[in-house]
Amino acid sequence: MLTGSELLAKVKELGDVSKSELVRECGYVSTKKDGTERLNFTAFYEALLGAKGVSLSSDSAGRGKGGRSLSYVATVQGNGNLLVGKAYTAMLDLKPGDEFEIKLGRKQIKLVPLGSTEEE
Hints:
alpha+beta, two-stranded antiparallel sheet, two-stranded antiparallel ribbon, 4 strands, about 30% helix, about 15% strand
């Protein structure tokens, strides 16, 4: 399987061929148990994006499920609730049932885990 600059060069060299032929010629082919050929389109396109500098790593720090960057901004909902999303709780390794003390300051809210000091 070609990667990096070799992959980009091969794609350019092949020019206007079918997508199947492109994947096959770049080596993204495997054999099924029954002996038939399987074209690995996903692996090919991930390698192609990687060669072009687009990272699809599984590092989800700072990202929600959809891959967007976290804004670190919350909005009060119409019912008055303030929602802290799953991406933030995952970053802090919070689990269902974790409890916090709510500390109100001037125009701020602090959530302090029960049993810890505020400096932690």
